[in-house]
Amino acid sequence: DQQVKQNSPSLSVQEGRISILNCDYTNSMFDYFLWYKKYPAEGPTFLISISSIKDKNEDGRFTVFLNKSAKHLSLHIVPSQPGDSAVYFCAARNAGNMLTFGGGTRLMVKP
Amino acid sequence: EAQVTQNPRYLITVTGKKLTVTCSQNMNHEYMSWYRQDPGLGLRQIYYSMNVEVTDKGDVPEGYKVSRKEKRNFPLILESPSPNQTSLYFCASSLRQLSSYNSPLHFGNGTRLTVT
What we know:
Largest sheet of chain A: 6 strands, mixed
Strand content of chain A: over 45%
Structural class of chain B: mainly beta
Radius of gyration of chain A: 13 Å
Order of helices and strands of chain B: EEEEEEEEEEE
Oligomer: heterodimer
Number of helices of chain B: 0
């Protein structure tokens, strides 16, 4: 059973608009959450993270929101740019410092 | 340039023929790990190593072996590959095991393996 789920395999957004990528988890012991971005033929790269003691973390155009009661986090990209087109993975860390990844969401930003 | 290097990038082999995928990092990282990526399943951890001579199983270790004789190298060995090991493999490293903003995982560019 997947403990971290990204229920939208793909998302298409117009350039300049907001992209919202969602991630749900089941393990309440996860204490840290990360987002990774992956371009074709490359490995994932770290994008942004949030501790479970916070509900928001912002870095430039990227903001991650955490709703612990709903076991839900989201990544907001504003404004979206064509270069943001990639696959985005959310990941959660457990007490043993192990990362569990979601299945990924492919974001396409149309010019 | 700081990086994680995997070789080969592409590999096609037949069932049962032993193969090794190499991984090397030049950042003096303690922690190294192997993942496989399959459609809809995201990245699943195969094996990891917290330091030289210390390795442990991840979520899907069956059919794989690893070794960590030197800090910079962490090869993935498939003694008898089977078609269900056809996948995209990533090696990753981080300064410490702790995955956080100050110790994020750095990934290689991947090895696409096909076992026929």
